[in-house]
Amino acid sequence: MNQQSDSWTPYYQKTLEKPHHPRTEKALGYAETNARRAIDCGCGTGADTYFLASQGFEVLAFDNTEEAIELCIKRFKHQPNVRISQASFESFDFPPTDLVIANASLFFADPQCFKQTWQKIENSLLPGGVFTGDFMGPNDSWADGMFARTCPLTKTEVLALFKQFEVLEFNERDETGQTVAGIQKQWHTYSVIAKKLA
Question: At the top level of CATH, which class does the domain 5-196 belong to?
Fold first, then answer.
């Protein structure tokens, strides 16, 4: 994410006590690997990281905002199976993993580097490993880049990313609604759970 940390403050305040995303738990149930490692991309305040660590995973969590990293370092300072780093999708070194979580974070990947970013994600997943995350569609209010640099994709472009996967769940949202911070906007997103083929 490339926003200044102060623009994320209301979001972080609202999500500090928020539980993990239900889709993260679903994705965990689909994984068919044994390494027990997960990567939480754009970890925010660490809700998904906390859940995965509680399930015995080694979790590598990263975010591009200093505020999120400071919050997570405090939250996970006594959990040796969690490693926190300040990084972007473009700079993070994706190691082999069972699970990649990218809930509402790939929206803010650099569109100029997205092909390489996705290749890194795909390459990091072990056969039978699972990706779960969201992509921004072209009808989203933020797709024009006025709020922040974003990486909108069409439905065809999103589905084309998963040639080496079995798509287990695919949901499109195209409607007006509020953000966690209470801002009204048009949402256009694609949410995916997919298992990498052996």
Answer: alpha beta
